[in-house]
Every structure is written in structure tokens, then in C-alpha cells.
Amino acid sequence: MDDINKEYWQNELKCALEREGITDPNFYAFLKGKIKKLPLKVEEFGWGVFPKIDANGILTDIRMVVPIIYDIKSLCVNIHEYTHAYELYFCLGEVYVWHVEESEAKAREAEQRLLLYFK
Fold it and tell me: 35-75, pLDDT tens digit by residue?
């Protein structure tokens, strides 16, 4: 991917995250070095956010694996996973219980808002 396209998609991600209210600079500082961006097609990998939970059930850390953004589909995956990570971020240091349906619904809604923005 050339630098112009890379810059375009990074800007789109930044704008989409802002529209979603994912704006806390401490969140981004916390995630620095914890996001693996792979140069694979969306369909080629199991993208996700991976909470690190200690023996007491306390959420201690977060890791994320997302595709390098090259189109709207890969941007959607990034928004989906950032939505999960942002939700987890506010649970750090607490006993964590994943409410799967609610969490997935939030992430899908963020994707849908993104797609509407591009229409």
C-alpha cells in the first residue's frame, strides 16, 4: 500500500473513532505497543481484542489484533475491535465479566454508523 492510501485510511480511522467518542488520550497511551496490525485480508484471520485476566478475575491488560486498513471492510474491523477495547479499558483493575451479546451489539452498531457515513 502506498503512503497516500495508508495516510488516507489512518485519517478515516481517526475520524471514525472520534465520531464514536473513542477519544480518551489515556486509552491510546495505554494501548501503545499492544496493537498488532497485520497485512492480511479481513477474511484471512481471526481479528480480536484479548483481555488479560488474573487469577482473581481482574482485568489487567488488553491486546488487540487488527488488519492494516486498506478498504472500508478493514476499517469496519478496526472500528469493531477498537469499540471492544475501549469498553474493556474502563474495566481495567476490576473483576471482568464479558457481556457478549451487549458488547457485540455495540461493536456492530459502530460498524453500521461507519457504513452509513460512507454512503
Answer: 999 999 999 999 999 999 999 999 999 999 999 999 999 99
Q: Which segments of 1-119 does DSSP mark as H helices, in order?
A: 3-19, 25-31, 72-89, 100-118
Taking the C-alpha atoms of residue 23 and residue 14, their distance in angstroms, rounded to an integer, is 9
Residue 59: φ, ψ to 5°: -75, 120
Per-residue model confidence as pLDDT tens digits over 76-96: 999 999 999 999 999 999 999
CA distance 61 to 21: 21
Asked whether the beta carbons of 18 and 24 are under 8 A apart, the reply is no
Question: For the packed helices 3-19 and 100-118, what is the interaxial angle rounded to 10 degrees?
Answer: 120
CA separation for the pair 25, 46 (Å, rounded): 27
* Cα distance between residue 9 and residue 4, in whole Å: 9
pTM of the model: 0.94
